[in-house]
Backbone:
């Protein structure tokens, strides 16, 4: 991370904590909900299957920038399906950098070739060892690993949603992250139980066991892009929601924190690690503040 970017985020954090501000710093643009997969845990794919045009996405990026957001995510659906004429997701990342966003990340399922050195991080979904990943996402594991091997840069971070199918594969994903070329780290979430996927949710006891495995992996120097100081709050679902420092924009609609905010009762069962981490950070939790500085400077 550049020193100038670090200083900007430091200043934002201090103002937010000291003056109890609710201004956002992280924004996500949903470029499409079209996806080439039908994952068992996903409730937001192919609802409209509309690929939003470049002019609209560019306008939404500008809208977020004008809100003083400086961390930008592109998300889907599947982001690598996004096209408008000869423009691809690469063009969106380049444009975001030109606009002045300090960190630009892309979320993908990894089933398309990965040539995106312009992104700071590519958050790539890997949901277990081959057997359990394929049970969730279809026969994609080998394709994904081949695309990672052939990626043009080492800016990939595994992104695992832990659920009833893959809860015993955390160590497998950690070791794969540690030992795979072009992978920088691994980041976790717990399954957030939309009404149609509630059977995949973890109990409090299961979440604790998962966190214990992740902490052990951290002790073994596996590159984990999460904050263990937030784990107790995640296990108990005792962190403030929604996260006002994060917004999502999809087809012109801006939502605080995420799309799931519109589902009654879902905030109380939130499994997103970053929501716990950010809300605790901006409430001034000193352990989270200290750990986030060390973690973000290492992996971004």
Residues:
């Amino acid at each position: 991370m550049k020193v100038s970017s670090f200083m900007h985020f430091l200043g934002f954090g201090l103002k937010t904590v000291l003056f109890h501000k609710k201004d956002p710093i992280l924004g996500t643009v949903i470029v499409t909900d079209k996806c080439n997969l039908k994952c068992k845990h996903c409730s937001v794919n192919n609802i409209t299957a509309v690929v939003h045009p470049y002019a609209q996405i560019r306008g939404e990026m500008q809208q977020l920038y004008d809100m003083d957001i400086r961390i930008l995510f592109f998300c889907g659906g599947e982001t690598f399906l996004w096209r408008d004429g000869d423009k691809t997701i690469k063009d969106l990342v380049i444009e975001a950098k030109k606009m002045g966003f300090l960190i630009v990340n892309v979320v993908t399922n990894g089933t398309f070739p990965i040539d995106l050195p312009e992104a700071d991080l590519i958050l790539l979904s890997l949901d277990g060892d081959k057997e359990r990943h394929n049970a969730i996402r279809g026969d994609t594991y080998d394709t994904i690993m081949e695309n990672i091997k052939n990626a043009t840069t080492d800016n990939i971070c595994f992104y695992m949603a832990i659920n009833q199918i893959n809860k015993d594969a955390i160590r497998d994903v950690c070791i794969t992250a540690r030992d795979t070329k072009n992978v920088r780290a691994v980041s976790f979430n717990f399954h957030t139980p939309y009404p149609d996927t509630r059977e995949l949710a973890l109990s409090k006891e299961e979440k604790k066991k998962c966190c214990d495995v992740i902490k052990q992996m951290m002790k073994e120097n596996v590159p984990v892009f999460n904050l263990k100081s937030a784990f107790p709050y995640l296990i108990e679902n005792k962190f403030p929601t929604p996260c006002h420092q994060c917004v999502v924009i999809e087809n012109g609609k801006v939502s605080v924190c995420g799309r799931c905010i519109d589902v009654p009762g879902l905030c109380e069962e939130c499994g997103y690690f970053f929501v716990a981490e950010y809300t605790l950070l901006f409430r001034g939790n000193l352990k989270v503040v200290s750990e986030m500085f060390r973690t973000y400077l290492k992996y971004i």
Notes: Residues 3-19 form the longest helix (17 residues). Strands lie at 26-30, 71-75, 83-84, 87-88, 103-108, 121-125, 156-162, 183-190, 246-250, 253-256. The longest strand covers residues 183-190.
